[in-house]
Amino acid sequence: MASLRNANPRLKKYFKENYIPQVCEALLCGILVTCPEDPLRFLEGMIMVIIKSGLQNLLWDMCIAPSMKPNIRRLSETYLEQLFELDDQLMTPELMIKACSFYTGHLVKTHFGTWRDITHANQNVVLADKMNRAVTRYNFRLQKSVFHHWHSYIEDQKEKLKNMVLRIQRIIYCHKLTIILTKWRNRARYKNKKKEDELISKHELQLKKWRNRLLLKGASAGKSNLPEQSSSEVCLVGETPECDISQLPERAILQIFFYLSLKDVIICGQVNRAWMLMTQLSSLWNAIDFSTVKHVIPDKYIVSTLQRWRLNVLRLNFRGCLLRPRTFRSASHCRNLQELNVSDCPTFTDESMRHISEGCPGVLYLNLSNTTITNRTMRLLPRHFHNLQNLSLAYCRRFTDKGLQYLNLGNGCHKLIYLDLSGCTQISVQGFRYIANSCTGILHLTINDMPTLTDNCIKALVEKCSHITSMVFTGAPHISDCTFKALSTCKLRKIRFEGNKRITDASFKFIDKNYPNLSHIYMADCKGITDSSLRSLSPLKQLTVLNLANCVRIGDVGLRQFLDGPASVRIRELNLSNCVQLSDVSVMKLSERCPNLNYLSLRNCEHLTAQGIAYIVNIFSLVSIDLSGTDISNEALNVLSRHKNLKELSVSACYRITDDGIQECS
């Protein structure tokens, strides 16, 4: 509502003289308290009442029924005078603020003084109480710290005592086992010796009987005036002496039959009943190789053999066998089967694999190379072969990347440690990523004859397969130095590249830091490798095998730098075939720095002369050497004949060596 404080004085006078605030107050109070249904008619009636009673007798509750009047005390002449601000003497906001400030200040002063007096009186008591609490807390924390150290010491002593007791128990247990095994060994030796003595006595007795028969036969022959014959002749023409090998110990019989093929074992079982019983020893059928008789034995005999020895068969080899699906299905009866080789079997299908996987869940080694398996077989591998460790999918080109994705189903193939993907050119980068997700524990990886293999494939694989220790890449021309960089996260011990022109010295620059445990390096026919690579290989302390055949850019300088490092001490095998820049200087360095070298190949090293051959004699640990295609003569061959430990020597295509030189050497 608008204020009349600053209004025209004439207007203010008009309001006061005509009792307008009082009239509005009475009407407004009547409406607010009575709440009539028709407020206009109510106001009209009340205005007539006010007119009849006169403005001088106007009250604020005149328009309210007596029964509804509130019992409140009137504070001023009218409430609306202040509302309309007609009275200049009414309280203003400024005066109200001053009054409140004065009242508050007086109140604060009074109570603050009282509080100050009380606080000052109790300050010493509160301070003393706080000090007592602080001392109590300090003592508690000190006790807690001391107890914590004491508790740690006691727990450590208990752990040491427990370990000591366990160690003593282990020593006592080992001592008991030693005593038991010693007694068992002595008893077994005694029984074996007793059995052998009995067998020897039996054979001696039988031999004595044979001799008596021969003597009697010779005497009867002499009496009949026949020409005299020697005892050996009598033995030949007389009765054939009996010799039953079934009397030999079972271990000896097994050792004899282990040298026979499956075909020979079957033939031996047809000799007589004793030999048939010997060929039916259960240990003899732990490993069955049908590949040696694949063109002879029919399917029905394979089925009957597997049915009979199904509980003893541990290893099956069907390599290259052209069998019916029913024959492959019979392998599912071998519940204890651990190794299965069906490589190069054109009739082996996904259905055959389904039956085998359902019946032989304990397979550890599975070779499916060069078969017609598809994604269906890949789905079966993680579902049934939970302990599969070795898997070969070489040259299986009918499965896709989706099949590799199946390897992560169920329990997955997380125990796989060996994988062969040679010739699987259909695998893309995504396929290698699927392998990394499902086979994180791979240790040995072989990828040969795969021209589609790129650096991105290897990067996708090693993202999660960081435990790889052996990698073989033969026939992968697109692999470059980037692959070496990606493999730095793995713990490589053996690496093999052949026929790659994109591998350069940059791959070997930090090889001592990235691959400190490398023991085997095969880099045959890598034209980009020079002497700088050999210098980088010299710090490898674990290196034992190095193959740099056909690396034609390697010379005496690089080999000398390699041999000056710690790698030369443990090197056992060194192949430098077709490294045409090497000369006698390298051979001299080899004799000085390689005390453990066993195998050396210097094939087609044209600059090698008789002087270099003389240094080879000083490599006393050398067992085999290849000097084919070199320019050595009979004199050099005569020098090599002085080597005491040399067992194998190859000198093919050495045209200066004659028959006389070979005879002198022999």
Automatic annotation (TrEMBL):
Record key words, sorted: Leucine-rich repeat, Ubl conjugation pathway
Alphabetical list of InterPro entries matching this protein: F-box-like_dom_sf, F-box_dom, FBXL15_LRR, Leu-rich_rpt, Leu-rich_rpt_Cys-con_subtyp, LRR_dom_sf
Residue span, F-box domain: 242-288
GO biological process, alphabetically ordered: SCF-dependent proteasomal ubiquitin-dependent protein catabolic process
Stated name of the protein: Dynein regulatory complex subunit 6 isoform X7
Gene3D superfamilies: Ribonuclease Inhibitor (3.80.10.10)
Tree of life domain: Eukaryota
Pfam families for the chain: DUF7885, F-box-like, LRR_6
Record SMART domains: LRR_CC
GO cellular component terms given for this protein: SCF ubiquitin ligase complex
